[in-house]
Amino acid sequence: TDDTLATSVAGSVAVTVLSLPILATPVVVTSVANVNYTAGSTATAVDPNLVLLDADSSMLSGAVVSIVGGAGAGETLSFQTLGDIHGSYSNGVLTFEGAGTLAEYQQVLRSVTYSTTSGALATIKSLSFRVTDADGRVSSPGLVAVTIVSAPLNVAPLVVTSGVNVSYTAGGTPLIIDGNLSLLDLDSTTLKVATVKIVGNFAAGDILG
């Protein structure tokens, strides 16, 4: 809980207890804590190295991947199908059904990607992975955070000068004003217009070359 009283989603760590497997629940082990994503860009894989474990069953019957707290406008979870495992996405919840081995469900969950529209605000979303084994036992959630960075839109270019003053002797050789000037633009690599002007005190004979 931070100093504004906002509380995080729980982080979890799996502990595999080695004993006689009696009614053991499956476990989702995520391999990353966070992935970065720029709003509006190509969908990003959430956890391509996620691992599924189950001490007493080699088959799963379903899985749910959800955006904790619900989906915002434009947020989408996508996946690749495999075998008899079928998935559907609605309002931040990706639901998988169908019998499949641990390896098959692991592959499907590793294929899950996240995307959102370019207008999304910068934020951190938490994604929850749960699986259900053939005996109906449901795992605790495996969690991965997605940090969404808003793409810069309609950002004005910037002129960065390298000095504050140059000295010139009247009638002398033309003087370069700023040989190390830099131009920056976060959302464009092309410019179409530039203007250089003498601000105040323009006199007859002043020339910009």
Strand and helix map with partners:
Elements: E1 27-29, E2 34-38, E3 44-45, E4 51-53, E5 59-67, E6 76-78, E7 86-90, E8 93-101, H1 102-110, E9 113-115, E10 123-133, E11 142-149, E12 158-160, E13 182-184
Parallel strand pairs: 2-11
Antiparallel strand pairs: 1-4, 3-9, 5-8, 5-10, 6-9, 7-8, 10-11, 12-13
Any overview of this molecule?
The protein has 209 residues and is mainly beta. The protein contains 1 helix and 13 strands. It has one helix spanning 102-110, and strands spanning 27-29, 34-38, 44-45, 51-53, 59-67, 76-78, 86-90, 93-101, 113-115, 123-133, 142-149, 158-160, 182-184. The radius of gyration is 28 Å and the shape is elongated.
> Beta-strand percentage?
25-35%
Whole-Å distance between the termini?
61 Å
Which class of secondary structure composition applies to the elements? mainly beta
> The biggest beta sheet, please?
6 strands, mixed
- Report helical residue fraction: under 10%
Give the SSE order as H and E letters. EEEEEEEEHEEEEE
Shape: elongated
Question: Which ranges are low-confidence, i.e. pLDDT below 50, for 5 or more consecutive residues?
Answer: none
Rg from alpha-carbon coordinates? 28 Å
Strand order of the largest sheet: 2-11-10-5-8-7
By oligomeric state, this entry counts as single chain
Query: Helical segment tally?
Result: 1
Q: Give the tally of β-strands.
A: 13
Mean pLDDT comes to: 90
